[in-house]
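Blinded run. Sample ID left blank on purpose so nobody reads anything into the name before looking at the predicted structure. Input follows.
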Amino acid sequence: MVRGRVIRALFAAALAAPLIAFACEIPGMKIHWIADYCMAQLETDDEIPASACIAKELALAFPGDCAAKRHYKRAMCQLSVSRGTTKDSVERCVADPGFVGRTVRNGGVGG
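Blinded prediction complete.
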C-alpha cells in the first residue's frame, strides 16, 4: 500500500517536472507581448496599425517562448525608460512583475 503511494507520487513528480522546468517568470503569451511591444513602439493602442510590426516580430526566431517574452519585456522597459514613463532602471523594470502591457494583462487585445 505504501509502496503503491510512493510509486504514484514519483510518477506524478516525473510528469510535473517538465512543467516546472519550463515555467517562465514572465507571464502571458508571446503573441500578447509582441502586440504590446509593437503598440508601445508605435505609441498606439490599436492593433491594426501595429499589424505590420507584429508580423515582422512573429518572424523572429527565439530559443523558446520564454526567451521571446524576456526579449519583449526588456524592449518595452527600454522604451518606457527612454520615454520617461517609468523612473526605474531597465533592470528594475524587467524585474518588476507588475510591468506588463495591457494585452498581456487582459489576456488578449479585446480582453
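Unblinding after everyone has recorded impressions. Helices lie at 2-21, 30-42, 51-58, 65-82, 90-95, 102-106.
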